[in-house]
């Protein structure tokens, strides 16, 4: 079996080589991922279509639709669009419901700038701007008012969420329909914008750029936090100042105001007069914080000084007031109020020069915030999760938007909460009576741990009363009357009912049993039913036995295929099977009296040792001075005794004699990864680094997903990744590992652990641990492997983190400088970008967006496959490297035994742990059919050869992506089969390329896509004059019908224009056209068939690749009206051109050169009321990305061949 695989691969590679040699294409742009946005930005264009993504022309900020963050509201477009930014040209309007809320995942404990923008623009043609409220979770944020129809209203707060999501809400107060244009989140530094109470949120009152000479607003990219700085009107006694310094030499502080803003300032005309800023308040209870930003803009002479006092008309205890401040030029200083200004209706801050100052005070910019009281706590997180799951399970159609318990006036219908103003609100009552509920009683109800009242009466619930109800000790009333429940009422519920601690109401459930006699009848019925089922089960024995035999045969073949490799490691296998206890005297003999130190771990030194059978080992001795170390020892010893994986360092034995405690590990001959990255003489090659990353990911994935309960490492770093004699990587040092208490725990508070530079910032802030902390550390390790740099570098007296260095390079797309320069360019650009993309996903500030280790492992395998595919040394090298990867890491021995003790920490899956992915794979074997509204099954045509090929590739893709260890194999042995996953995954990538060729079977291999619109489905042809292969668009369209004008098109036997097409979902390669209207075939020749459309076309393309796109229109009086139509062409969200015909017999061509930013394009035909739109042909031609370079789309105006002697067209 293993011998055939490389042979099969050789044949496929040969075919692929022939295809590639016809016209090799540069695919480097396909995998380029340039991160143009600052990490942590979330930018939602509200009301935009779900699949639309774009970058703001002025800011470069990437906007996406808000459709995935809210399930209510309607999309509206401002028409005609005014000259405003694209993100303001749509709105989401909320004509239904009182409160409509977004839910956006964030990182708890991280400070955010949150901005909501509203542009009315008379979108509803009422010319009457509404007025409505904004809520934020359980608190009231602001009232939105408009002074005029065309004004833009912004509401901005600075907020630190305590949970992993935020819920901005729009509330209808009876003064018009609420709407929103844009919702934006920007991460800030937690040390900025600090208030004296965590319940106070800063709401922007005013932000001014003083002395501006451009009179324009500045935001990102000038401001790294995307604050909007507006020029403010100058006072009559002020004068403008501009800097004489290079603004690029600006020394910033933690607030980082934009350089362009700090390059100008104001000063008083009269040097002796104070510089004052003033504002009015609506009432005396409003509290204000100010932030004054200074930087010297003039070069001072030696005898010149600028010093001044800052005072306020409100007397407060503020350390920044009433003291002189001397500002050093070129360095930004920010003065802020430590306590709020309160108690007046007019405020004034004055800057007055000191007695000895020779120059008047200056001010470059300032910010004023009004504090908002967000003291109403949001509902407890577990209760929120539970009630949200209940809402989803039963599709509850109520006002269940925003925070369940707050504000109190907007509490969810059917809920009561414990709200006392001090503790976190909890759900105590749930009334879902008469709500049309179906199915079983949801397990999520059990997560409402202090629920006292539960009413599920008058619904259609079925199944038994679940046992989890007996564990809900706070429950006082349970009402399930008038349902379809069956089975036995749990005895404990009956007992609690008899004692009076529970009011139990179960009437009108005919099949629900409470009495003893009824219970006995039920039991008798169940036994009888079971006996009758035995005969049926016997009929299943034979097919089940055959399946088991097949699975064992597969395992046996693969096991024997690896037998030679395993036999080379018998020594290690016997070593792992010992797990013996050593005495202290034996430890002395093993280490030769602790002669050679090879390292120092978290709790003591590590020595090299030799066992009696000459096996080399590493001995870790617990330091007697570390109490912390004893806990680590116990944790590591217990865990490692049951953890076995080829990418985890194995424990051989241990010593526990009096105060002497030691662990004996297998010896790793090649040390740790950090050592190899620091050696310039023999640096790690690029493919070696990728293999190390794959090995480490495999080990960590096993800890996270292969162990029950899951294990976190909590101190991942290159020094804890060791290499054996074959440079196979294994994760070491589990002294800081912790197991989850159970499967559902997501956060466990533990003592801090980890290494500076590799620790998740969220973990440092909160001390709460989860798998995502390890994911972050793994992302840093990937960057260290990619760049060959330390995680922390000391420069100019400061610690510089690797992310501060690498992210700007990634944003600029400078992959050459990201990758270790010592490799001298010996790496694949595609695989390098893929590795960077994986690392970036791991270090996402929002922990919920970080992928699981299983996904990371699959992506790294794909990355390694890319490296092999892109190798420039020819196919022979690719095959050799492929074979080496297929057998890499096979260090397990033939006679290796894995014995897992029966313990809660057992790192294995149960027999019933079948993965849902496997079930989905089984489902794909069911016949494909569609059911219409009348439940009539529509037969589907037989699956074609192309479709069978796709299914075959998807099967390989499934195995390569998921790994065979996700099937029903013991996780501890699955890696033996998984040796071939890299080979299968690589094979699936190659087959994917071939699949594209099969799907577009009549296409030239140069990447041409040529669609003859209206050609019958089963026809294709090669144009005689040009040799271009054309195919029909019939398989690629969801709607439309054919009319042949009474003439049957050649090849269309039944005259119906081909089979009805339908959409096939789930393919990895999607090439389709969606159109509506009627089709017309008129016979004749190329270009004389056309499709009348009124919708859009969607074509699969390569992202960031340059294309020539041509649409051809030949009217030819196909409709016998002799009146050519006029219609518009759109391209996605933009207008392309207008199609006009001067003569019915002429061909009209529209052609553009375009680089798609997404993996598809959408040319659209738009009916403008001047005839029926149609199209004859659509053609796509890939171009060299270095040609036709421009920042816009090129539309062909003229194209001439000058001096031609043939008078022929050439193409």
From TrEMBL:
Its EC number is 2.7.11.1. One of its GO terms (molecular function) is protein serine/threonine kinase activity. It comes from the Eukaryota. Keywords: ATP-binding, Cell membrane, Glycoprotein, Kinase, Leucine-rich repeat, Membrane, Nucleotide-binding, Receptor, Repeat, Serine/threonine-protein kinase, Signal, Transferase, Transmembrane, Transmembrane helix. Residues 1-24 form the signal peptide. The keyword NAD does not apply. GO terms for cellular component: plasma membrane. ATP binds at residue 620. It holds the Pfam family Malectin_like. PROSITE patterns: PROTEIN_KINASE_ATP, PROTEIN_KINASE_DOM, PROTEIN_KINASE_ST. It is a single-pass type I membrane protein. It catalyses: L-threonyl-[protein] + ATP = O-phospho-L-threonyl-[protein] + ADP + H(+); L-seryl-[protein] + ATP = O-phospho-L-seryl-[protein] + ADP + H(+). The keyword Acyltransferase does not apply. It is found in: Cell membrane. The chain crosses the membrane at residues 540-561. It is an enzyme of class 2 (transferase). Residues 592-864 form the Protein kinase domain. In the C-terminal section; belongs to the protein kinase superfamily. Ser/Thr protein kinase family. In the N-terminal section; belongs to the leguminous lectin family. This is non-specific serine/threonine protein kinase. It comes from Medicago truncatula. The lineage of its organism: Eukaryota, Viridiplantae, Streptophyta, Embryophyta, Tracheophyta. The gene is 25500366.
């Amino acid at each position: 079996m293993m011998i055939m695989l490389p042979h099969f691969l050789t044949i496929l590679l040969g075919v692929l080589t022939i295809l590639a040699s016809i016209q090799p294409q540069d695919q480097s742009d396909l995998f380029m991922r340039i991160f143009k946005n600052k990490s942590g930005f979330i930018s939602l264009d509200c009301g935009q279509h779900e699949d639309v993504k774009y970058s703001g022309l002025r800011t470069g900020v990437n906007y996406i639709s808000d459709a995935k963050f809210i399930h209510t509201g309607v999309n509206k477009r401002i028409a005609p669009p005014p000259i405003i930014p694209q993100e303001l040209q749509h709105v989401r309007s909320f004509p239904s419901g009182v409160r409509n809320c977004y839910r956006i995942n964030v990182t708890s404990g991280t400070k955010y700038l949150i901005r909501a923008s509203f542009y009315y623009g008379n979108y509803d043609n009422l010319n009457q701007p509404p007025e409505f409220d904004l809520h934020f979770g359980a608190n009231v944020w602001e009232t939105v008012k408009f002074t005029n129809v065309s004004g833009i209203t912004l509401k901005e707060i600075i907020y630190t969420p305590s949970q992993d999501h935020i819920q901005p809400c729009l509330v209808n107060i009876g003064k018009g329909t609420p709407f929103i244009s844009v919702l934006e989140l920007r991460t800030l530094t937690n040390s900025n914008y600090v208030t004296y109470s965590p319940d106070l949120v800063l709401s922007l009152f005013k932000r001014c750029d003083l002395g501006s000479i451009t009179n324009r607003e500045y935001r990102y990219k000038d401001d790294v936090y995307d604050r909007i700085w507006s020029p403010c009107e100058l006072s009559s006694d002020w004068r403008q100042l501009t800097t004489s310094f290079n603004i690029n030499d600006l020394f910033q502080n933690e607030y980082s105001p934009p350089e362009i803003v700090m390059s100008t300032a104001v000063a008083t005309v009269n040097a002796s007069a104070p510089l004052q800023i003033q504002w009015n308040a609506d009432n005396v209870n409003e509290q204000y914080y100010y932030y004054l930003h200074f930087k010297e803009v003039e070069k001072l002479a030696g005898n010149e000084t600028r010093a001044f006092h800052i005072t306020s008309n409100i007397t407060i205890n503020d350390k920044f007031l009433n003291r002189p401040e001397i500002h050093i030029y070129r360095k930004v200083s920010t003065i802020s109020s430590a306590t709020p200004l309160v108690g007046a209706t007019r405020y004034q801050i004055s800057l007055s020069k000191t007695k000895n100052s020779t120059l008047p005070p200056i001010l470059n910019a300032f910010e004023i915030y009004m504090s908002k009281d967000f003291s109403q706590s949001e509902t407890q997180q577990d209760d929120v999760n539970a009630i949200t799951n209940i809402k989803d399970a039963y599709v509850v159609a109520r006002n269940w938007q925003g925070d369940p318990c707050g504000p109190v006036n907007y509490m969810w219908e059917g809920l009561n909460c414990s709200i006392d103003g001090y503790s976190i609100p909890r759900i105590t009552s749930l009334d879902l009576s008469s709500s049309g509920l179906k199915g079983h009683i949801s397990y999520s109800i059990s997560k409402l741990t202090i629920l006292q009242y539960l009413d599920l009466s008058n619904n259609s619930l079925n199944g038994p009363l679940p046992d989890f109800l007996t564990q809900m000790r706070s429950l006082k009333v349970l009402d399930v009357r008038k349902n379809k429940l069956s089975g036995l009422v749990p005895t404990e519920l009956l007992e609690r009912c008899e004692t009076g601690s529970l009011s139990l109401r179960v009437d009108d459930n005919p099949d629900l049993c409470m009495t003893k006699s009824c219970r006995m009848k039920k039991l008798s019925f169940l036994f009888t039913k079971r006996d009758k089922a035995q005969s049926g089960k016997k009929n299943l024995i034979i097919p089940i036995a055959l399946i088991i035999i097949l699975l064992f045969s597969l395992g046996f073949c693969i096991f024997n295929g690896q037998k030679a490799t395993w036999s080379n490691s018998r020594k290690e296998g016997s070593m792992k099977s010992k797990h013996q206890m050593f005495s202290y005297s034996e430890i002395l003999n093993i280490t030769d009296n602790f002669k050679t130190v090879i390292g120092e771990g978290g709790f003591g030194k590590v020595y090299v040792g030799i066992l009696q059978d000459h096996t080399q080992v590493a001995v870790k001795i617990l330091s007697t001075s570390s109490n912390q170390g004893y806990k680590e020892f116990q944790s590591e010893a217990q865990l490692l005794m049951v953890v076995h994986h080829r990418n985890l360092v194995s424990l051989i034995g241990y010593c526990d004699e009096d105060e002497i405690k030691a662990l004996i590990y297998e010896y790793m001959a090649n040390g740790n990864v950090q050592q190899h990255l620091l050696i310039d003489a023999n640096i790690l090659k690029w493919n070696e680094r990728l293999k190390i990353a794959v090995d480490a990911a495999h080990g960590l994935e096993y800890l996270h997903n292969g162990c029950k309960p899951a294990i976190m490492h909590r101190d991942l770093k290159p020094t804890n990744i060791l290499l054996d004699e074959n440079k196979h990587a294994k994760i070491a040092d589990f002294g800081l590992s912790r197991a989850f208490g159970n499967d559902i725990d997501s956060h466990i508070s533990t003592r801090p652990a980890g290494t500076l530079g590799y620790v998740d910032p969220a973990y440092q802030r909160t001390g709460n641990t989860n798998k995502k902390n390890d994911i972050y550390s793994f992302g840093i390790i990937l960057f260290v492997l990619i760049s060959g740099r330390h995680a922390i570098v000391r420069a100019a007296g400061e610690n510089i983190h690797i992310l501060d260095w690498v992210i700007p390079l990634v944003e600029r797309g400078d992959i050459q400088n990201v990758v270790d320069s010592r490799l001298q360019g010996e790496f694949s650009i595609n695989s390098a970008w893929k590795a960077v993309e994986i690392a970036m996903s791991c270090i996402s500030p929002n922990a919920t967006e970080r992928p699981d280790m299983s996904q990371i492992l699959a992506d790294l395998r794909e990355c390694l496959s890319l490296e092999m595919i892109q190798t420039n040394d020819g196919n022979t090298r690719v095959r050799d490297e492929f074979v080496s990867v297929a057998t890499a890491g096979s260090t397990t021995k033939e006679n290796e035994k894995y014995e897992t003790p029966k313990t809660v920490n057992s790192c294995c899956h149960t027999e019933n742990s079948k993965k849902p992915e496997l079930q989905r794979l089984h489902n794909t074997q069911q016949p494909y059919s569609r059911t219409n509204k009348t439940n009539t099954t529509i037969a589907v045509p037989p699956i074609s050869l192309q479709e069978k090929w796709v299914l075959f590739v998807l099967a390989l893709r499934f195995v390569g992506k998921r790994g065979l260890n996700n099937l029903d194999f013991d996780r501890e042995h699955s890696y033996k089969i998984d040796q071939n996953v890299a080979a299968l995954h690589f094979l699936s990538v190659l087959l994917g390329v071939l699949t594209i060729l099969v799907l577009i079977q009549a296409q030239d291999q140069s990447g041409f896509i040529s669609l003859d619109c209206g050609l019958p489905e089963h026809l294709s042809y090669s144009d005689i004059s040009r040799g271009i292969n054309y195919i029909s668009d019939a398989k690629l369209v969801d709607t439309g019908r054919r009319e042949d004008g009474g003439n049957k098109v050649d090849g269309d036997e039944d005259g119906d224009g081909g089979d009805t097409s339908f959409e096939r979902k789930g393919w990895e390669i999607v090439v389709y056209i969606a159109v509506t209207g009627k089709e017309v075939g008129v016979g004749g020749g190329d270009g004389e068939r056309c499709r009348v459309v009124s919708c859009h076309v969607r074509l699969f393309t390569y992202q960031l690749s340059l294309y020539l796109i041509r649409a051809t229109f030949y009217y030819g009086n196909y409709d016998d009206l002799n009146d050519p139509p006029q219609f518009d062409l759109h391209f996605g969200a933009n207008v392309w051109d207008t199609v006009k015909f001067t003569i019915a017999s002429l061909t009209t061509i529209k052609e553009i050169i375009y680089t798609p930013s997404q993996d598809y394009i959408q040319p659209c035909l738009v009916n403008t009321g001047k005839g029926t739109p149609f199209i004859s042909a659509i053609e796509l031609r890939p171009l060299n990305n270095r040609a036709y370079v421009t920042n816009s789309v090129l539309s062909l105006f003229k194209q001439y061949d000058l001096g031609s002697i043939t008078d022929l067209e050439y193409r």
